[in-house]
Specification:
The protein is an alpha/beta fold and 281 residues long. The chain contains eight helices and eleven strands. The chain has helices spanning 24-34, 62-75, 89-102, 127-134, 145-152, 162-171, 216-229, 234-252; strands spanning 6-8, 10-18, 38-50, 53-59, 80-83, 107-109, 140-141, 176-180, 188-195, 201-206, 275-277. The strands form three sheets. It has a six-stranded mixed beta sheet, sandwiched between helices. A three-stranded antiparallel beta sheet has the order 8-9-10.
Length: 281
């Protein structure tokens, strides 16, 4: 097999930039690389932020977001897509157009609405557009409890409420939901994967004591996208991605980065970039 017959597993992140490096596009690229994938980006917004919070947001014009996506997809190609910060209705429309125009596969939607610091990252009038346009187009959505509560209009109390909440999110049009239960109290963290027509699956792990949790949701969704790009099914990609995130959290727990919520250690166990047969796509 010659070099010309090989390619990389290609993952495109359509999300916002985190100048502090812990979340958003920066976390996605680190995750793709650590899991052996080739990462690409289409930036929706620039943020001025650090471990203490978000100081400012500068939106990228929708037409330039579209140009970024076109440039990447038409030349390099895409095996999976991670969607992050989509802050305005016009941005959602561009992404929906791109998914349909290029038949983008394995779309993982992380409905980023609130930063770890509590800063709001999405316009309220964008939420319904996000649900109507992107839930049906995504392979899976990955909300945390706060995002899920905003989407279904009620709070989620306790682990026993996760299954019902995931079912309610499916009813909004999602094909599959990974509902993250990390914001619940307790020594164990439970996430629920719900797919239409299948019994919910629970994934449980011991809670890791750390202040360095900035970008955890971005990292999990990008890890799922990376695993999908490598050919794993969603049912296999979720536990593989969770294992990577847990390892990154553990490796970063004792490290001081900034004065607030620091990042995970994305590079704790990198693997070489996978080279796949070019005929695979």
């Amino acid at each position: 097999m010659t070099n010309a017959s090989l390619r990389y597993a290609r993952v495109l992140s359509i999300a916002g930039s985190d100048s502090g490096g812990g979340a958003g596009i920066q976390a996605d690229l680190k995750t793709f690389a650590a899991l052996g994938c080739y990462g690409m980006t289409a930036i929706t917004a620039l943020t001025a932020q650090n471990t203490l919070g978000v100081n400012g947001i500068h939106a990228v014009p929708p037409e330039f977001l579209k140009a970024q996506i076109q440039a990447v997809v038409e030349d390099i190609g895409v095996d999976s897509v991670k969607l992050g910060m989509l802050h305005a209705p016009e941005v959602v429309e561009v992404v929906a157009w791109a998914i349909d125009r290029y038949k983008l596969p394995n779309v993982v939607l992380d409905p980023v609405m609130v930063a770890t610091s509590g800063d709001r990252l999405i316009q309220s009038d964008t939420v319904q557009r996000l649900v109507g346009e992107l839930f049906p187009r995504a392979l899976v959505i990955t909300p945390n409890l706060d995002e899920a509560a905003l989407l279904i209009g009620r709070s989620i109390d306790g682990v026993d409420g996760l299954d019902r909440a995931a079912s309610d999110l499916l009813a909004l049009g999602a094909r599959a939901v990974l509902l993250k239960g990390g914001h619940l109290k307790g020594e164990e963290v439970v996430d629920v994967l719900a797919e239409a027509g299948l019994a919910p699956q629970r994934f449980a792990s011991a809670r890791i004591a750390s202040r360095n949790l900035h970008g955890t949701g971005c990292t999990l969704s990008s890890a799922i996208a990376a695993c999908l790009a490598l050919g794993h099914t969603l049912a296999d990609a979720v536990p593989l991605a969770r294992a990577y995130v847990l390892g990154a959290m553990t490796a970063g727990a004792g490290v001081q980065v900034g004065a607030g919520h620091g990042p995970l250690n994305h590079g704790f166990a990198p693997v070489p970039t996978h080279r796949l047969p070019a005929t695979a796509g």
